[in-house]
Design goal:
2 domains, Rossmann fold, 16 strands, Threonyl-tRNA Synthetase, Chain A, domain 2, alpha/beta, about 350 residues, 10-stranded mixed sheet, 4-stranded antiparallel sheet
Amino acid sequence: MTEACNLVTVHRKTGVINVPRIIRVRSHSPSTETVYVRLLLGQTPKQWEEAADALAVALKAERVGVERVRPQVIALIVQRSEPFTQVIIPPDIPADADAVSLRQVYLGETEHGTDWYAPLIGQHWLVAGATGSGKNSVTWMALRACAPLIRDGLVRVHVVNPKGTELNALRPVSYRYAETDGDIVEVIQGFWATMQDRKKVLAEQGRRTFELSRETPLDLLVVDELGAVTGYGDRSLTKGVQAVLPLILSQARALGGSVIGALQEPTKDVIPQRDLFSLRVCLRATSAGHVDMVLGEDMRRRGALADEIPNVAESAGIGFVVKQRSRTPMRVRAAYCDDSDIRELVRVAGWPHTELTTTAAG
């Protein structure tokens, strides 16, 4: 296999073929396994990344990703079939805000059969994908985690919904909500004004970092379609948003502000501040170039084949993220929230704490 993929070396005098050694194989499920390989002297992980397509053919796999483990050791993530064949059901919303950790928000599952968690507090999320790819699944999961905190005044949600469709269910529990161009600019600029006020409060208190409380809640800005407000919308809209959005993305994290932005068409004009989003999720894409535009340079070559995810309803919520330590793409699937899950989110977020506690006890 490695010889066919040009991943061997030949001794120039003896002609002996040196073959990379497999250290161990770990099977996560019938669909995915990890093969740990010790590289030959002079080999680089990049050579294996460039041979990923050939390796997939040789291994009769759908996809092979390459992860750098340590010097001279790599891991091949071999996906033999689709690991996500069933819809992932979201967990119940906790009744008590103390049971929620915004540093570990459950989003779904990984290709390795483990739960997919991501920090929300102190972070910005970018979720990109074609129409019908399930972008809002990630948003809904974050908001379900926040529901008891919204109810208790620990999280305030600022919603920008230029499409005026799916996220309109959040209107009753939003701190600020906007659909029209003028209102959108007002909400986003108001969010920045809130961050500036927060900066003054922290300075007066002599605090360098934000701490979640009713006096200083987490302010969460949710933008359903970033492209409509930063790229191809009306000029008065995009100009007003671009005046403050880079400031929000660069400064709000330390002040108790987070952004979740959804995007259909990732281009440089639409997401010039891509690198300011700490978590980037690329669901089904319509172009190979979109993958690197969202996840970062060479991520598609390293295994994030989001443009090859089938355009069918069964693939909604499936995509790729980049592991923070190894900078390697990982296939994930977000849990699916149906209308009843969204109604539960709004109900919990809007109920008084005493009523919820009484109902839960009954």
